[in-house]
Specification:
The protein is mainly β and 127 residues long. Helices cover 0% and strands 50% of the residues. It is built from no helices and eleven strands. The mean pLDDT is 95.
Length: 127
């Protein structure tokens, strides 16, 4: 009912930029918090960023603050994660997910309940 699809991953050198997109094909997309997560081999999944349904609330894990920017265009049913100054430690499979934050109108990168998930897109940053 709320399918999601990520795109925009790739292999880039340190310092490069990538723009990830999360596209929804459901009808209720503006109602949901959307979060970006990543998982590197042998590591636990990590919440990277999130954005509230209206786009007024955003949050980021400390390691990406100042480098990543999340935004959404509800008219197009798309959430974007702009990633600048990429580092090798950013290498992971990136997933987007839709759900709810800790309270209405806000989101937190490490506190949410997500019920719809995309399949992921690979980001590789070489040194």
């Amino acid at each position: 009912q709320m399918p999601l699809a990520e795109s925009g991953g790739g292999s880039v050198p340190t310092g490069a930029s990538l723009r990830l997109s999360c596209a929804s094909y459901g009808l209720s997309f503006p109602s949901y918090v959307v979060g970006w997560f990543r998982q590197a081999p042998g590591k636990e999944r990590e919440g990277v960023s999130c954005i509230s349904g209206s786009g007024s609330s955003t949050d980021y894990v400390d390691s990406v603050k100042g480098r990543f920017t999340i935004s959404r265009d509800n008219a197009k049913n798309v959430v974007t994660l702009q990633m600048d100054n990429l580092k090798p430690e950013d290498t992971a499979v990136y997933y987007c997910a839709a759900g709810w934050g800790p309270r209405p109108g806000i989101c937190a990168h490490d506190n949410g309940r997500y019920v719809f998930w995309g399949q992921g897109t690979q980001v590789t940053v070489s040194s």
